[in-house]
């Protein structure tokens, strides 16, 4: 999600800078991505709680542990390092 957001934001911002004129305004790019950015900020602000919940579930939930183990070994997900 984050990588997609950054790419899309960079493309829009780069296009705006590339075609720069006296009437250009980069604020429109920030407004366009405002909703997405607020969702991401919500995730970041709750990240410590997310990690605690994740660790707790690993300890107490065998099904969750098994799921993670399966995903860890699946090249398509490349889950390591994304939590």
Written account of the structure:
This protein has 83 residues and is mainly alpha-helical. The protein folds into 2 domains: 1-33, no CATH class; 46-83, no CATH class. The chain has 5 helices and no strands. The protein has helices at 2-18, 27-32, 34-45, 47-60, 62-72. The mean pLDDT is 80.
User: Unreliable runs, pLDDT <50, ≥5 residues?
Assistant: none
Distance linking N and C termini = 12 Å
Number of domains: 2
Oligomer: single chain
Give helix and strand order, one letter per element, not per position: HHHHH
- The radius of gyration computed from the alpha-carbon positions, rounded to a whole number of angstroms, is 19 Å
- Continuous helix count: 5
- Proportion of helical residues: over 70%
How much is the average pLDDT? Answer: 80
Extended strand count: 0
Key words describing this protein structure:
single chain, 83 residues, mainly alpha, 5 helices
Topology:
Blueprint: H1 2-18, H2 27-32, H3 34-45, H4 47-60, H5 62-72
Short summary:
It contains five helices and no strands. The chain is mostly helical.
